[in-house]
User: Which sequence fits this backbone?
């Protein structure tokens, strides 16, 4: 059962978008201010891809800068209602709201197109450095953000958790004395160690959420962000003690490692199909074309999808390892030695992967924008 007290004196909250702070930690901030604690809010984006609830604000969706400016002003008003004076947006880089889409499995995931400065596209250590610098300046004794799943799964929320955990590990190593607590927002059904808020802070939370009219529907006793899901203002907010684990440091490595088994699989597939001949007078090497086409599709697909070349290097390494092993194995002994199509597959596949690796980052969004401008 969650405790009913939370006595931290210097609280740093890290949120991804304006309105998240009031939706998920409005009670926490109001309670902290009431007992004389210091509160600092760090918001990572200005919510440029928000969807307006009010019809008269729908036009903002077509202008991300205008939406961001509007929501930043809403945040200012919400914090004034809560009594929070210390807040800022992250860094000088002006990270952008990534937005989200619902994937094939029905869960929130990263949009197919991301700007380079979208929060979900930026390297986690870069964002963590901004959070770390805030910690150095503010010196919190408690740090609060989303859980490792990003609450309901928004990619920006996940990034905020990972970057905060990374920053806090670094800060704990460098700070002397008592280490700051790490608290994450407990979702419904999750275990919680702290419960904050109720009737005493409900009016302040309502006032803060009313300031976010572009994103939140406010009624007399309840508020809602998603249609059909209404929450009472006096419902306590629940937090859980967590550990800032080391996984965020290795996530980029884990995400790139899939290139190695993919290269192994691609080499084996190519070895099996490369010598299939078309049933025509010329008996053209259909299998070779299929193998090289698959190699090019996967290699350039990785270059388009990934922000780094790591997965491509591992793809190439996986293919090299598999081909070397097959050339020594009796089943594939002729694959290198006297198979002309096999030799062509090996060399052309390596060349394709090499070209993809050194090729500049393919930004489809920029290409489309240039095409559209060219037709104006």
Assistant:
């Amino acid at each position: 059962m969650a405790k009913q007290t939370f006595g931290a004196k210097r609280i740093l909250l890290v949120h991804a978008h304006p309105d998240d702070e009031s939706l998920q930690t409005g009670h926490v901030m109001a309670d902290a201010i009431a007992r004389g604690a210091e509160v600092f809010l760090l918001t990572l984006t200005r919510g440029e891809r928000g969807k307006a609830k009010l019809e008269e604000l729908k036009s903002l969706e077509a202008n991300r800068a205008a939406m961001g400016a509007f929501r930043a002003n809403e945040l200012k008003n919400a914090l004034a209602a809560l009594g929070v004076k210390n807040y800022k947006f992250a860094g000088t880089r002006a990270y952008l709201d990534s937005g989200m889409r619902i994937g094939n499995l029905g869960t929130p995931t990263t949009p197919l197109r991301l700007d380079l400065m979208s929060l979900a596209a930026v390297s986690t250590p870069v964002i963590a450095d901004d959070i770390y610098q805030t910690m150095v300046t503010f010196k919190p004794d408690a740090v609060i953000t989303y859980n490792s799943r990003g609450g309901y799964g928004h990619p920006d929320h996940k990034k905020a958790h990972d970057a905060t955990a990374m920053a806090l590990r670094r800060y704990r190593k460098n700070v002397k004395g008592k280490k700051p607590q790490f608290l994450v927002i407990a979702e419904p059904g999750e275990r919680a160690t702290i419960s904050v808020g109720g009737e005493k802070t409900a009016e302040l939370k309502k006032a803060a959420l009313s300031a976010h009219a572009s994103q939140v529907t406010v009624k007399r006793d309840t508020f809602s962000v998603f249609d059909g899901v209404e929450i009472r203002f006096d419902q306590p907010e629940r937090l859980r003690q967590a550990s800032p684990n080391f996984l965020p440091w290795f996530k980029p490595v884990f995400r790139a490692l899939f290139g190695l088994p993919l290269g192994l699989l691609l080499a084996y597939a190519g070895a099996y199909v490369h010598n299939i001949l078309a049933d025509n007078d010329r008996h053209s090497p259909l299998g070779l074309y299929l193998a090289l086409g698959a190699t090019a599709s996967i290699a350039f697909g990785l270059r388009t999808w990934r922000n780094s070349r790591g997965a491509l290097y591992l793809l190439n390494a996986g293919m090299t390892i598999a081909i070397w092993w097959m050339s020594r194995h009796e089943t594939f002994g002729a694959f290198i030695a006297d198979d002309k199509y096999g030799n062509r597959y090996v060399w052309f596949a390596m060349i394709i992967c090499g070209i993809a690796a050194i090729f500049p980052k393919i930004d489809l969004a920029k290409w489309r924008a240039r095409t559209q401008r060219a037709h104006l």
Observations:
- The CA atoms of residues 21 and 61 lie 21 Å apart.
